[in-house]
Design brief:
- The complex is a heterodimer.
- Chain A is 53% helix and 15% strand.
- By secondary structure, chain A is of the alpha+beta class.
- Chain A has one domain.
- By secondary structure, chain B is α+β, with helices and mostly antiparallel strands.
- Chain B folds into 3 domains: 221 residues, Aldehyde ferredoxin oxidoreductase, N-terminal domain (Aldehyde Ferredoxin Oxidoreductase,  A, domain 1, 4-Layer Sandwich); 90 residues, no CATH class; 248 residues, Aldehyde Ferredoxin Oxidoreductase Protein, subunit A, domain 3, CATH 1.10.599.
- In chain B, the strands form 8 sheets. In chain B, strands 2-1-6-3-4-5 form a 6-stranded mixed beta sheet, sandwiched between helices. In chain B, strands 8-7-14-11-12-13 form a 6-stranded mixed beta sheet.
- In chain B, helix 15 packs across helix 19.
- The two termini of chain B are 43 Å apart.
- Chains A and B meet through strand 1, strand 2, helix 3, strand 3 and helix 4 of A and helix 7 and helix 13 of B.
């Protein structure tokens, strides 16, 4: 999905880091052997890096080192809209979520959308 | 003798510098490993109420009958036992375990285990080359890290530097030379100063992490144990052993090459496909590495010589740093001989303290560590060095996480919220007892975080991944329950053993599941050495009707090696006996029923993220039996009910034949297990359960 280009002001807003713990997006990082911990994200970049497209076969074949990086996709869309203020990206994420598929199957598309927005912002900010 | 045993156990008294031996036959009824270790501790520790640093503490380092053989996934583990330094409110008699090639060399040197008594007046290391055993001066090794210590010992035993060729150690061709370096088990630098954190490390990263046995070694003025064996182990029926291996191939990916693509890998994935590869930076050249005799090879060695042999939590799996950072931390952690689990629990606690503004330069907990860069190489390095050198907050952390929190006045508060994630006995929260009941109860009614993934793998992790990807499960929850009930001898008539529903976790059937797990792991894993990542094999994509190898496979290998004709049920009964003996030691150490409670957060805080406005539950999909039907369901977000946990304990104690008021075994239970002497001793101490 092609997102509209952003201006400098939007790029600055979309790439900012939410510092307040209360406003960060929760998720969890779970390892088969070690167990899971809650983690939180303060920026689109952190979320994009956290989302790892993989297959269940790959995770299970990794034995105790298998990992699942998990977040709640509807909450991500809401957070992008309310905390980051990027309603276009939020709409696009909502559209992905609306497919009703399981979390793991949404990861590649969610990651792609975030990466596209981040690349746009990076390009705009690099122009200065 | 051709039965898998070497025939003798080495007994070293560090106080008197006496080297002796115990005939293995004296303890053979206990199987090996943990069973023999517990029985020897019972016989030789004159006072189990002492602290772990007391010279009266007895440490056992045990192999098993399958060690050093070709028994699949059961040949390379070593069990360490003694009074530990990590648990609170006191150091319980506890255990740890490590892989590699130590137990193999021990067997090849002619020993089934090592018993260490007393305390040396000088710093020493123990040098075993076949039947020759000496205590060597360790003064120059004492401040060295675990890797440098091993290199020095290799050079000392073989001549510096080891050439990698045949080394002649004796007079005969087949029992006097080796291409191998000695297998060394070492404590970190000055480990007596950070005992509750101190692990024992062998080779690159095989660690006995939990329990603080590095600190116990150091308290005895023992730096390391080195063993080089040039002999072999005779098995009773080599043909049966090879047939067992071939049989097990039917359950492995490698034996089903043309039938891949099933949606669960099972316990026997392809060797040379190590899961730890994902923990290394991209572009690192890796080769698979495993314990002696293993067909799985779950670890790596890298071209950067970083993170070698490490696995799982060693890679700071939940600290949030990149592989480029964590591999450096991992390597340092292994060199310093620090317990990875303590570090993994420390990170979220520090994050919480930082968020509260409670720690940092000039704060209530004053520290110069760079908390603004907690995922940097520098932070982890500074943090670990501070613990080992007792600088900055490391002065307090070195006391242990629980003890440190107490000193900082944070213990009750942070255990109440779970910010300090110590689930029970001061051990770091691993898998969640609020959801995975048998894990939590196993820890609570034992001595430590159990770290046994038998149910965890197939009842939690696999269904959770199936659900996260919307997959059709390999088997329905009902079929999983049927398969596992059949394998869980002697409870095979009970259909609801894996019911993790809100009601199920407090039920009599969960008491049976918990008991089965305690007995199974005590014997098959910790006494015989079946590896946690291969066994138990409950549900298998390649097994007949998806039935895994467990309950058939374990005795098949054991009997082939020992020549015995033991059934799976007989092995389970030995596990129950070992579990009761361990229980008796804890009771002598002061264990009472009312001590067996989880930290407050397990009862008062749901296992959900606490970000206001954005509720979130970590995925936790498990089999449940509700309204007369089985399903896989998310059981996240659950708190435990105090009264129901107490009621569960009553059910469990009754099932085990223990006094429900005290949790102490009764004379009848102990005598039925052949433990009259244990009953007598408990009675003498006024701690025998009422009939």
């Amino acid at each position: 999905m092609a997102l509209k280009k952003v201006g400098r002001e939007e790029a600055l807003r979309f790439t900012r880091v939410v510092e307040s713990d209360e406003l960060r997006l929760p998720g969890s990082q779970i390892a088969a052997g070690a167990g899971g911990v809650f983690v939180t994200f303060g920026s689109l970049a952190e979320v994009e890096a956290f989302l790892v497209p993989t297959t269940p076969e790959e995770i299970l074949a990794s034995g105790m080192q298998g990992r699942l990086n998990h977040l709640d996709p509807p909450s991500l869309a809401m957070w992008v809209r309310d905390m980051i203020g990027d309603s276009e990206l939020a709409d696009a994420l909502d559209e992905v979520v609306a497919s009703g598929r399981a979390f793991g199957l949404l990861v590649p598309e969610m990651k792609e959308l975030l990466a596209e927005r981040l690349a746009q912002c990076e390009a705009v900010l690099a122009e200065e | 003798m051709a039965n898998g045993y070497a025939g003798k156990i080495l007994k070293v008294d560090l106080t008197t510098k006496t080297i002796g031996e115990i005939p293995t036959s004296q303890y053979e009824q206990w199987g090996g490993g943990h069973g023999m270790g517990s029985a020897i501790f019972w016989d030789l520790c004159e006072d189990p109420t002492v602290d772990g640093t007391d010279p009266k503490n007895v440490v056992t380092i045990m192999a098993g009958p399958l060690s050093g053989t070709l028994a699949s996934g059961a040949a390379g583990r070593t069990e360490v036992q003694g009074i530990g330094l990590q648990s609170m409110p006191r150091g319980w008699f506890t255990r740890s375990n490590f892989g590699g090639r130590f137990s193999t060399h021990l067997k090849y040197a002619g020993w089934d285990g090592i018993v260490i008594l007393g305390k040396s007046d000088k710093q020493v290391w123990l040098n075993i080359v076949d039947g020759k055993v000496t205590l060597e001066d360790a003064t120059s090794l004492w401040g060295l890290d675990t890797h440098a210590t091993q290199q020095k010992i290799w050079a000392s035993v073989l001549g510096a530097p080891p050439a990698g060729n045949w080394d002649t150690l004796g007079t005969t061709r087949d029992s006097g030379r080796s291409t191998q370096r000695p297998a060394v088990l070492s404590a970190g630098p000055n480990a007596e100063k950070f005992g509750p954190w101190a692990s024992l490390v062998h080779d690159g990263g095989n660690g006995a992490g939990q329990g603080g046995f590095g600190g116990v070694f150091a308290s005895k003025n023992l730096k390391a144990v080195s063993v080089l064996g040039t002999g072999g182990i005779e098995v009773a029926d080599p043909n049966a052993l090879m047939q067992a291996r071939t049989w097990l191939m039917g359950y492995a990916v490698a034996g089903n090459w043309d039938n891949q693509g099933k949606n669960v890998a099972g316990n026997w994935p392809l060797p040379a496909n190590p899961g730890t590869a994902s923990s290394f930076p991209k572009g690192t050249a890796l080769r698979p590495q495993g314990c002696a005799g293993c067909v799985r090879m779950c670890r790596c060695r890298s071209d950067k010589i970083m993170g070698n042999d490490s696995m799982c939590v060693d890679f700071f799996t939940t600290a949030g740093a990149t592989p480029e950072v964590t591999v450096v931390w991992t390597d340092l952690m292994q060199k310093l001989g620090l317990n990875a689990f303590n570090l993994v629990g420390l990170f979220p606690w520090l994050r919480g303290l930082v968020a509260e503004g409670a720690i940092g330069k000039g704060k209530a907990i004053d520290s110069s560590l760079p908390f603004e860069q907690m995922t940097s190489v520098a932070f982890g390095v500074d943090l670990m060095n501070s613990i080992v050198n007792q600088t900055d907050i490391g002065k307090d952390l070195a006391l242990g996480l629980w003890q440190c929190a107490q000193k900082w006045g944070r213990l009750d508060k942070d255990l109440a919220t779970g910010m300090l994630p110590l689930q029970e006995w001061g051990y770091v929260h691993h898998y969640d007892g609020r959801t995975e009941a048998e894990w939590g109860y196993g820890c609570l009614l034992g001595d430590r975080d159990i770290n046994e993934h038998d149910f965890n793998w197939i009842c939690y992790w696999t269904p959770t991944i199936w659900a996260a990807y919307g997959m059709t499960p390999l088997v329905t929850a009902q079929r999983m329950a049927e398969i596992m009930s059949k394998q869980m001898i002697p409870y095979s008539d009970e259909p609801n053993l894996i019911d993790y529903s809100d009601a199920g976790i407090y039920s009599e059937t969960m008491a049976k599941t918990t008991a089965w797990h305690r007995h199974y792991t005590r014997y098959y894993k910790q006494a015989l050495g079946f590896c946690d990542w291969n066994w138990a094999d409950f549900v298998n994509p390649y097994g007949p009707d998806f039935v895994g190898a467990t309950s058939i496979g374990e005795p098949k290998f054991f009997n082939a090696v020992t020549g015995k004709n033991q059934t799976f049920a007989e092995g389970m009964e030995i596990g129950r006996k070992i579990w009761n003996l361990d229980r008796a030691v804890w009771i002598l150490q002061g264990r009472t029923r009312d001590m067996e409670v989880f930290s407050d957060y397990m009862y008062d805080v749901a296992a959900t993220a606490k970000t206001p406005g954005i509720p979130y539950e970590m995925p936790y999909t498990m089999p449940v039996f509700e309204n007369g039907a089985w399903s896989y369901k998310s059981v996240a977000g659950r708190k435990l009910d105090r009264q129901k946990v107490e009621d569960f304990k009553t059910l469990f104690f009754k099932l085990e034949g223990w006094d429900t008021k005290t949790g102490w075994p009764t004379r009848k239970t102990l005598e039925d297990l052949g433990l009259k002497n244990v009953a007598d001793k408990l009675q003498g101490a006024g701690k025998l359960g009422a009939a």
